[in-house]
Description:
The complex is a heterodimer of chains A (220) and B (224).
Chain A: H1 5-25, H2 39-66, H3 69-100, H4 109-130, H5 135-157, H6 175-219
Chain B: H1 2-19, H2 21-41, E1 42-43, E2 46-47, H3 52-77, H4 81-85, H5 91-120, H6 129-154, H7 160-171, H8 173-187, H9 193-222
Helix pairs in contact in B: 1-5, 2-3, 2-5, 3-5, 3-6, 3-8, 5-6, 5-9, 6-7, 6-8, 6-9, 8-9
Amino acid sequence: xxxxxxxxxxxxxxxxxxxxxxxxxxxxxxxxxxxxxxxxxxxxxxxxxxxxxxxxxxxxxxxxxxxxxxxxxxxxxxxxxxxxxxxxxxxxxxxxxxxxxxxxxxxxxxxxxxxxxxxxxxxxxxxxxxxxxxxxxxxxxxxxxxxxxxxxxxxxxxxxxxxxxxxxxxxxxxxxxxxxxxxxxxxxxxxxxxxxxxxxxxxxxxxxxxxxxxxxxxxx
Amino acid sequence: xxxxxxxxxxxxxxxxxxxxxxxxxxxxxxxxxxxxxxxxxxxxxxxxxxxxxxxxxxxxxxxxxxxxxxxxxxxxxxxxxxxxxxxxxxxxxxxxxxxxxxxxxxxxxxxxxxxxxxxxxxxxxxxxxxxxxxxxxxxxxxxxxxxxxxxxxxxxxxxxxxxxxxxxxxxxxxxxxxxxxxxxxxxxxxxxxxxxxxxxxxxxxxxxxxxxxxxxxxxxxxxx
Lengths: 220, 224
């Protein structure tokens, strides 16, 4: 691993350790009160989930076009991030919604497309796990289709009225609420970056080990 | 290109006419699906309001999954998959040929399913037959376009029978939503043409995007 990995990990851990205090110091939202604080973890995990899905789709397209295994390892790591942070998003969302909207789940466009996108990321990992040899190309095809699918899911579900707050809310936040949000965003993105780096590193080592085994077999 | 597509379709149809395996199994499965839904959803002799459209699309998607898995499994079992891949025609032609065959088979199944669902669920599906035909046709093409690619990709994978629905259903969610919504709008007493047209446009856009993507990905994923 590169030299900067360990200090950056410590920094990330520190950010997460401090984040509860930063969030606790943020002012209460006028109507939702305490429960609104879920937002400081909900939105960053949703953004990381979205970023990871896009990274997975682009890396898969590049892997299909060039056949370079590096892009495949990036796509795999990103898919795992998408499943992990997607789960966080889908758990924190209903916790907040129960108090804010009075219901655990609604079939809103953004929520439904997140759920389906998360399922596609999961299907990607299932395919890689159980598809046998050659499944990396198949899963790359799936990731590409999954990425192209998101706008269709969004439009089709948007037919029902939506009550999910729009992203235009974010730039209008007062500084006391905007700072904790940016703080958590930085922590989440740093965590995603570190985990992806670690995961691609493991995959690289695996590929090298496989290559060594193969060359030993040839010699024997 | 067109000739190659036609030859593949004709080959599949010839195999099918001789064995009638896919047509019979798919049709029988689709009808049993509708019966299962009827037994679970029809209570005290009456179906719940507006479930007909949902039942129709669920039956199409379940039966479609069965047929998709089978058409490529057949190529593998008779060891003709390699021959199919060696066809001196561009790979997309093979894809389009297979897709046409599947759509044709599903159209046959739907010809039985639609009246059956309309009858058992007392749904006014056939009040606007041309709109319904357009919605069902575009929906089937969209579902089969994704399904044909995935079934072809999975033909050499392990545990392909389980993986096909796992991959196929999340991706085809928009087809299901648009198909069901459009069919519900068609079956309603007051026919809203704008609603049907909106969903139909969405289905057409889905078909165009996904067939283009499939044509592009078929070559790299089917090459060893």
